[in-house]
C-alpha cells in the first residue's frame, strides 16, 4: 500500500510526460500499480467538496486560471485517449496576459508542461495532462452558454478564498477596461469629460452570475447594460477594480 503523497508524486511525473518505465525505476513502484491509479480518481484530503485526483498546488493561481478558463478556455481529449489538452485563447495584443496565463497554469499544476500555439490573431496557451478534466469539471461537449455551468463545492471554496484572482481571470478573458466620454454645458461652454469603466461580456447566464456574485461579495457596484453585458462604472468601484485587477496588457 502506498500513501496519497507517494501516489500523487508518481502520477504527477507521468502527467509531466514521463514513461511508466522511467517513473517505475525512479520510485520503485510497479508499472501495474501506477497504471491502476491512472484509471480511477484518487481521493485526496480536501477542505470541502468532491474529491479529485490532483488538488491545485497554488489555489490563488488556480482561481485566476479558473476565470480565464470560463471565459476563453476549453479542454479536449488526446486522439489516443491518453490525456487531455487545456487551451486558453489569448489575443496577440496582450503579451502580458499570455505570460500570466502560462504562469497560472504552472502554478496551479506544476507537473504539466506549457507551450504556445500561434493562431490567427491569438495564441493558444496549451498544456497536456490527465488531470485537466478533474481540475475543470465544467468541461463538456458544446459551447458553455448552451449548457449549465456550476462550480463544484471545492472550487467555490477556492473562489471564496481568492475572489479578486477569480474576478481578474474573468475580466482578463471576457472583459475590458475602456474610457468613455460625455459632454456637459458649464457656464454656456460645453466641456468634454472622460471616465473609465469596466465591461464584461459573456453569453452564459451562469458565468455572468458568477461574476456578479463575486462583485457583490467584494462590494463592487455593477449593472447589466444589455442581455450579455455587465458594466462597472461608478468611480469608487472602478478605482477598487483598478487596484486589484487593472487593464489587460
Structure characterization notes:
It is a single chain. The protein is α+β, with helices and mostly antiparallel strands. Among the domains are: 35 residues; 83 residues, Homing endonucleases (Endonuclease I-creI), CATH 3.10.28.10. A four-stranded antiparallel sheet has the order 1-2-4-3. A four-stranded antiparallel sheet has the order 5-6-8-7. A hairpin with a 2-residue loop joins strand 5 and strand 6. Helix 4 packs across helix 5, helix 4 packs parallel to helix 8 and helix 7 packs across helix 8. About 5% of the residues have low confidence.
Query: Regarding CATH, which class of the domain at 59-141?
Result: Alpha Beta
CATH superfamily grouping of the domain at 59-141: Homing endonucleases
Please state the CA-atom Rg, rounded to the nearest Å.
21 Å
Residue runs with pLDDT of under 50 for 5 or more positions: 40-51
What do the pLDDT scores average to?
A: 87
CATH architecture of the domain at 59-141: Roll
Order of strands, main sheet, comes to 1-2-4-3
Kindly state the percentage of residues in helix.
40-55%
Task: Report the structural category.
Answer: alpha+beta
* Cα distance spanning the termini: 49 Å
Strand content: 15-25%
CATH fold group of the domain at 59-141: Endonuclease I-creI
